[in-house]
Amino acid sequence: MMLPAMAQWEEVEETNGSAIIQSPYISVDTLQATVVLGDQITVSGVVEDDPEAVQIWVTGENYRLLGVNATVGDDGTFSYTVPGDLTPPAGQCYLVVQHPMTNGVFDVYARSPGSTTDFSIVNDWGWGVDLGSLAASEAITALCDMLNSPNCDDTYIRLSFEVLDPAVQWIRIDAVGSYDVGETFTVSGSACLPEGTELHYAFTLEGETAPARNGTVTVSGTDNIRYWHFPVDSTGMTEGRYTLNVTAPGGEPAATAQFELYGFSHPRPSLDGNYEIERLHVDPPLANIVAGGAFRLEGEIRLEGSYRDYTFPPAHSLVFATGIDDPVWSYNIAIDGVPNFQTYQTVGNHQLSIAGWDLAYQSDTEVSVLVNLTGTVPTGDGADDILLFHSFQRSDDTVVVGSDYRLNVSLSETSPATPPVTSIPLSQGWNFVSTPKTLSIGKDTTAIFAGVDTAGHSIFRYDTPTRSWIPLKPTDRIRPLEGYWIYAAADVDIPLSYATGTPQAPPERALAVGWNAIGFSDTRPTAARDALLSLGNSWSVLMGFDAESQTYETSIIRGGSGDHSDAGWMLPAKGYWLYMTEDGTLAAIGA
């Protein structure tokens, strides 16, 4: 699956100029979080600096695919599909894409690329490692340790996925965070069970025997891996630690997760978990934060060697989440006071997940996570809003009870509130935008952008059936659910005038197989899985564009987890690339 030409930012010819935007060093746009045993596994993406190839490394339980080349095209794209007879067995797998940098030479390579018997890796400075005897996670860590050597100038991106056996029935619960009594939240998960299977769920307070809440939820989807979710209104529930049980008919299979319901007494310290918050600085101070204002957080979390002989459980992850708008995380890992990465790693998403193998060192090692977060404070509506939440998650995405920490801010009803979105903000450079609602007659054409200095560039929409870019005329309509590309020579806001009067049916838009440029149809952020509910299982990948940094945001994958979770938000006035696996109709969710 590949992005269309402008999504990779090839040169787009126009009558008065061209559009060129830089892509990330390595960007992976295709790798499913879960793969069914026997299915093909494909990784693809975009790289800079025109290398002839990138190297692909895959490890799994009793499985190695080491140092195979994936050719890079003239447009910087690459794609590699693991051959059907070489797919991994069921279990957790790890994948690395290695870039040779500007010299075009791989400093780390397999002695026998693609071999099924020789699992040695070597390098240009004279030593090697046999990965054959190591566990899957240890093997990929040994490779990355070699790539991180000062003698190596190669860069890489490391990912994980899971191969599932469809013959084995199971239920999984996505990580359930901690909430305040009275909040409404969504519990979700996946299952390898027939579509339409009715699952039973029950919430039980610690120390009690009778469920505090129970009910049923139906498994949906047509693939081997299917999904379920339901809302929980915690009004009337008691503060404390809860166990959630989800079971299939007959009681098997089943899944369990634990979480906390709190009173309104945050922030609160961690109960368990081998870490200590060394410092946590917010700007502005909590007392001065207002809805709609800018927000910045800087923190350091020091790990304690309380997990056996390690600073962190290798099979767990350290997960951060936030409720602020337009969040951007940047982080580094300091080992004995020295940053591990040459530059801070950046993630534009509401969740940041750092794998345990990046944090697991001998217990006498000093390990700290340095994390920064920027964005916009959300509208409070008189409730507490989550500025920061972090916890430990196991490999099955369940939260380690007591390892969570929340930093909230209470935004009273008298606080300055963010008004409904009434404009489209444009940043200098290319912008991917949309209108949240139907515009009023006479103010619903491309002419609304007449005051924008586009530096001679056209305004574009993308036509999926013909795979072509359509430059817009001033009289062309600007419609909801459509994504538009516009260049701005300077920052500017475009005021919007929404239609009023006689109620009309909400807009709909037919989408075709392939990449579609869509718009988000509401004035408030909404989880992708909810905004795209009308499409069912016909979509697979959603990707936004950060106009300030001129780079693509982390992709959202249907049924994905971690940074790729489909609980990630879609935001008003933004445009998105949406990949459709079959034709479908997208319905607006806003009024």
Summarize it.
Helix content is 3%, strand content 43%. The protein is mostly beta strands. β1 (12-13) and β2 (18-19) form a beta hairpin.
Walkthrough of the structure:
- 3% of the residues lie in helices and 43% in strands.
- It has 591 residues and is mainly β.
- Strands 22, 23, 25, 26, 27 and 29 form a 6-stranded antiparallel sheet that branches. The chain has a 5-stranded mixed sheet with strand order 4-13-9-6-7, with helices on one face. A 5-stranded mixed sheet has the order 15-21-20-17-18, with no helix packed on it.
- Strand 25 (325-335) and strand 26 (338-339) form a beta hairpin.
Topology:
Blueprint: H1 5-8, E1 12-13, E2 18-19, E3 26-30, E4 34-36, E5 41-47, E6 53-60, E7 63-71, E8 77-82, E9 91-99, E10 108-110, E11 120-123, E12 128-130, H2 136-147, E13 155-164, E14 171-173, E15 179-180, E16 184-191, E17 198-205, E18 213-218, E19 226-233, E20 240-247, E21 254-262, E22 275-283, E23 294-303, E24 317-321, E25 325-335, E26 338-339, E27 345-347, E28 351-355, E29 367-376, E30 384-393, E31 405-410, E32 423-426, E33 429-433, E34 460-463, E35 468-471, E36 484-488, E37 492-495, E38 508-511, E39 514-519, E40 526-527, H3 528-531, E41 539-546, E42 551-552, E43 556-557, E44 569-570, E45 575-580, E46 584-587
Parallel strand pairs: 4-13, 15-21
Antiparallel strand pairs: 1-2, 3-5, 5-8, 6-7, 6-9, 9-13, 10-11, 11-12, 14-16, 16-19, 17-18, 17-20, 20-21, 22-23, 23-29, 24-28, 24-30, 25-26, 25-27, 25-29, 30-31, 32-37, 33-36, 34-35, 38-46, 39-45, 40-44, 41-42, 41-43, 41-45
